[in-house]
Amino acid sequence: MDLAQVLPLLLGLAWLTPLASFAAIVFFGPRMGHAGKGAGYVAIGAIAASAVLSILALIAWLIAHPLGGGHDAAHPVAAIAGEWYPLAVAGELKIAIGYYIDGLTVAMFAMVTVVALCIHVYSLGYMHEELHEVTDPLVTLANGQTLKRRGRFHRFFQYLSLFCFSMLGLVIAGNVAMVFVFWELVGICSYLLIGFYIERKSASNAANKAFIVNRVGDFGMIVGLMALWSGLGTFSFDEIFQQVRPAGHGPAAHGHALTVPDGMVRFAAREEIAAIYQGTPDARQAEHAIREQLPGWRAEGLGYGLLVVAGLGIFCGCVGKSAQFPLHVWLPDAMEGPTPVSALIHAATMVAAGVYLVGRFYPVFTPEVLLVIAVVGCITLFIAATIALTATDIKRVLAYSTVSQLGYMMLALGVGGWVAGLFHLFTHAFFKALLFLCSGSVIHATGTNEMPRMGGLLRKMPWTAGTMLVGCLAIAGAGIPLVIGLSGYYSKDGILAQLYSFAGQNPSYAWLFYVAAGGAALTAFYMFRLWFMTFLGSPRDEHVYAHAHESPRVMVVPLVILAVFAVIAGWNVPGTELGLQPLLEQARPLGTAEGASQGLFLPTLTLPAEHLSHAHEIHVPVTLLAFSVAVAGFLLAAVIYWWRLLDADVISRMFWPVHDFLRNKWWFDELYQFLFVRPVLAGARLAAGIDRVVIDGLAHALAGAVRLFSRFDDWIDRLFVDGAVNATANVTYEAGLRLREIQTGAIRQYVMWVAAGTVGLFVLAMFLWSYTLAGP
Amino acid sequence: MPHVVLSLIVFLPAAGALAIAFTSKDREDFIKLFSLLITIAVFLLTAWLAIPSTGRGEPSTFVVGQSAMQQVFRIPWIPAFDIYYAMGIDGISFPLVLLTSFLSMLAMAASWNIAKHVKGYCILFLLLETGMLGVFMALDFFLFYVFWEVMLLPMYFLIGVWGGPRREYAAIKFFLFTLVGSVLMLVAMLALYFSSDLSKLTPSQQTAARLQPEELRAIAAARSSSTPRPVHTFNMLALAEMGQMKQSPFDTPLLWGKSVQWWAFVLLLIGFIIKVPSVPVHTWLPDAHVEAPTPISMLLAGVLLKMGGYGIIRFCYPMCPDAAYDLAWLVCALGVVSMVYGALAAMAQKDFKRLVAYSSVSHMGYVLLGMGVWTATAGNAFVSDYWKMGMNGAMFQMIAHGLSSAGMFFMVGVLYDRVHHRDLDNFGGMFARMPLYSGLAVGIFFAALGLPGLCGFIGEVLVVLSVWNYDIALAVVSASVVILTAGYILWTIQRVYLGPEYKGPHPEALTPITRREVAVAAPLLAFAILFGVYPQAVFRYMSPSVDRTVSQLARWTKEVKAPRLAGTDALPAPVAIAGPIEPSASALPVAPSASK
Question: B465 vs A225: CB contact, 8 Å cut-off?
């Protein structure tokens, strides 16, 4: 069968299976086995099926497109793009549900499903408390008792399944709009799972914060989408890349240089086009004139700004999702969720989606945007690493570490290291999931997140300690320099090498390299600080220590599997070129292999081609440097927390301003509260107030005025109109009264009046007769 | 026999109301059941109409894909004033008709807790349904106006008699605001009527407007007469044709240098944005909602607000395109301001129902914005695709908001029925006490939040994406509303549904949701999901007509407006008035987008 039919089918099924599991648990969850225990098995079955399908897809892909021989730019591996059904159509415009499958998609599917499977299995053990009634010691009711509630085992797996569906949808998405759809859905899953302990105020606050901060990023993303949409009229990756990277265009060896698409030029030249249309009534002639002008407009730089806005906007979304500075504040709080959630969503997959999207959207980014990405990544990795130095909550250390590592990925992508950045995404997914699950195992055993209450747990939980040590070594980039190493060794070296190469070309941005190298030392320091504080030394809290125990097998086995991946994920199958790095090399988007063309606003910036960083004179010194800074970090941690040659408390007191600053996380939360939250709430109250006072006040005033006028009208009525009528009536009445006096009832008097009247009339008649009729 | 089917749909509820009038008022259960059956019958009739017609012979049901008006009939009603009993449906009105009959059915089912004057309630409810359906189906401006008023009075009484403690204030406020709107509409209607002239129409336009033989005779008589006398009409199709003519009879100057259609547009727009409602004429809405009983809130938010949007797309734009082009920025600005302002005001509310009411203001802002984005300008080579998208998005948003807002009001009502308060700070812990209810409610709130996979997302995203081509600043502001919306909805969910325990009075009354309540809420959520996942289910019916409206206006922009703006074509000489002509093309205000 044709690969173009098989892969969409396989991956489509792998994508929809978790949705089926979600639907099943929604309707039948509580009735699945005892207390919904069956829901766990349903979800695990679904994700296992997804994993099998994804691995089949990976195998099919590798058979059809064997690795090795390097990346042949003349014969690139084409992506499989297509459409399942349209969401909305307007004229030529269309938004659809579709797929875009290349090496990156296939690799992401395999990674996400495998990591998710491990975490699902682990959760079976970790969440077992939810199978019966739960006492939540963190929630105190109004009557002073702690909360007792029903378990929510099935609910947890229901959300996990929904998350897996959403995450896989994000990866398979064939267009940016569909990415956005699933972007939001993973966001809501994250919201639901961070707030899984809905009774805890801190959890629901953290969930709200995560979603709303992400929405700030999404706001930027929507702006980017708008710029893209109005310029290109399409969201499909396939069509966007064709427009932005037309074949045979530009100075690069094989064409596919970044080009401002016609649509964007036209958008920027609307004034000129309007003038042409006004001068030329015939549409065909006008279009002809416009087409002649287009190259000139493009040369003037029209539309380039739109391309920059599109790139920056999309990156904004990635900043939110991948918790980059300045939107990194939500991720540490997200640790309120159960630990498997932190491992799956907030370490391995969802937060990496931002990096994934930057990688996917790479062909559209101009050099200016890439520089912004690099700088943001660099700032993030530094800030997060420094905060991780002083954090004492085991999960928060890992959370800041995640933020920092995501910063590394962004930095690598920003300086042209496409493979390096995405390679780190994969290796990080394995070892960070491992680290989180290990921390979960520790929390499960000790019932606390605080490292100062742990210590000496190595004897109690050797498996956890061992696998976590593997994770720490992997993230620190341990290995025998230039020979072999754990997965992190390869990916971090790749990043630093590309940075070194970049710094060589652009000396004014050399600081990016130094910060990243320094960050490697910090990474080693905070990771081993964590490990030493947790597992070595004497127990600091006897009570905690006494209750600690190794986790059940259902939790340990996933740890071991992930530890194996953390070791080998960077390796190629011996004797071949079958490995993650060659696969990514093959998936590199068109036109990005040769470095970037010069930007309009930053003509001096040069992005070196990535293969240059594999050169011996770059590779060797960087590897040695990376190794030595990591060792330095490790040694410092050992001196303070293992051998105790220095006292941590004394140091923190000595540098108290720095310590305070870091303990308070650089005061970001307080700053944002002051800068954004309070003004918005004030604006909200203002709007409500305007409604009540101004608008309704106006309406009431109007009503009052009408009432006043009606009263005035009433008064006029009564005084003049009624007055006139009444006056007439009164006069008549008065006359009647007077006249009544003559009505005496005496017949003789009446007869006299009749006689007098008759005589009077007669006299009158005579008088008139003689004067008028008889005439003179 | 369209006149039978459509008349049956519109007047079945009224006939039901008449039947109830002859029923003893003590048979309350029977009356409720009977009313419910009537609303179900109306819904089934409209649902039957929605079954796509096979296309053989005279279509008896809706023809999917046909953009022009269907099932049209015109029967003389008051010949002295050229008033017809004329109705018909197209892709713009039919989805709203379906929405109306669907929500009326659910709202009647939600009325079971009404205990006061059941007979009167049911009569007014059914009359209201007749009015609402008639508004969407009428093809004669006068008939439209009559239905508009028919709908107004029952609403006034339903709020004023069955409402909460401040019901009289709310009812009068609602009535006065709407009445101002309808008076302005009346003036605009008469202005258009007295400017209209059927004899200007070409034969093809006459066919399109479905003129009747007696009208054709009148035209012939007018043309042959030595003193040309205009043939007036209330025919909405004909008015639209006239509005888009090169020499439109509505271009006659009326007052202060503005033409008839400029004034008609402004008056109609004010009338309709009161109904939408848009800032700054929205303050009747929170009060009306807070005081109205739950089912009436559902209809008010679900259907009545849509009449404003419907009026704009049916009257303002096709009949007064010149004014609409010049004032497109106003429509868009009103939309964006409503979106931001409504969301901010919602955030500050303490009353659950008020919050939902303000969310309606915000969500209906999208409707105005999507309709207003007139991107078919010279700079865009008169390509109307983005505007089509915005207009489709606006229409979809009306359907989506109809489902989500009705759902939200019902969900608030379920709580209010139990604990008799709406203070947001005195809830909490509903997930533990009423899990099924909370699940449904959160689903519906997420639909309002614009979460993908639910109906709110499609409308919002289509509208927002279409704005950039019209104006970048408006686009950026409109995009920022996603943050505010997330803010107030999530905060509400947190205060009501999350948390350890219920904090307010009457905790013992928080019984699980009943089967009847599920039967109201579940269909709303089900359709919210269906339309979110497969919006083509709506667009198949809707898009052809919406696209046609936009295409016509785009063509009008290209052929009529652009030459006027370029100054190559002066405004047509007023027909009836002799003497010097005041306004020239250069005196007309130019929309900002066109000046770029």
Answer: yes
